[in-house]
Design a protein that fits this description.
Helices cover 81% and strands 0% of the residues. By secondary structure, it is mainly α. The protein starts with a helix and ends with a helix.
């Protein structure tokens, strides 16, 4: 498991390196591609280790999406720091980060609620949105004239993934809420009236 977590955490120094090299299309795209490879490999490695009976902390379910969000945030900050066209770059940054702008506050609210909740895990919709974000970052680095359309695609897929997570969380709560409601009604019938 540790190797899978190391692959996940590799995206942190890659993001910091991108702050340093942003503006050089070749280096920027290479580091984004390396981050994408680490994102694709970490889950596969973790599943391979589990099949082989490996042990270790199973934190990949939350670590991977958290590091993805950190990576994107740091790269967007690098774009901001190197911005030349404020209005255009602000729109690109907002579109690429749209999923995080919506999802992070919702996750915070979800986790702060005192009711039991399911463990947060990335799924296919989230992975597709992450691929779209990484692809948009590559386009921004290599072909800035296409940054806005690429960022728009990342925003649409990111917001769709955020909506999917919200619907999934609501659906998971519905049976639990129904069960609690039935239990509450049953207790009310069992209570003797005076």
């Amino acid at each position: 498991m540790w190797f899978a977590h190391a692959l996940t955490l590799l995206r942190v120094p890659l993001a910091l390196a991108l702050v340093w090299v942003w503006g050089d299309p070749g280096w920027s795209a290479a580091l984004i591609a390396l981050a994408a490879v680490s994102d694709a490999a970490d889950g596969r490695v973790a599943r391979w280790v589990k099949r082989r009976g490996g042990t270790g902390p199973d934190i990949g379910g939350w670590l991977d999406p958290a590091v993805d969000k950190l990576f994107v945030a740091v790269v967007l900050a690098a774009i901001w720091a190197h911005t030349h066209d404020l209005a255009h770059d602000l729109a690109v940054i907002a579109l690429v980060g749209a999923r995080e702008l919506v999802l992070v506050p919702l996750i915070a609210i979800y986790l702060m609620r005192r009711t039991p909740h399911r463990e947060l895990r990335a799924d296919v919709a989230g992975k597709i949105a992450t691929i779209a974000q990484f692809s948009a970052l590559c386009v921004i680095a290599l072909a800035p004239s296409y940054a806005l359309p690429a960022a728009g695609v990342a925003a649409v897929l990111g917001l769709a993934a955020a909506g999917h997570y919200v619907v999934k969380a609501a659906a998971a709560r519905a049976p639990r809420a129904e069960g609690l409601s039935r239990a509450h009604r049953a207790r009310g019938r069992d209570t003797p009236r005076s």
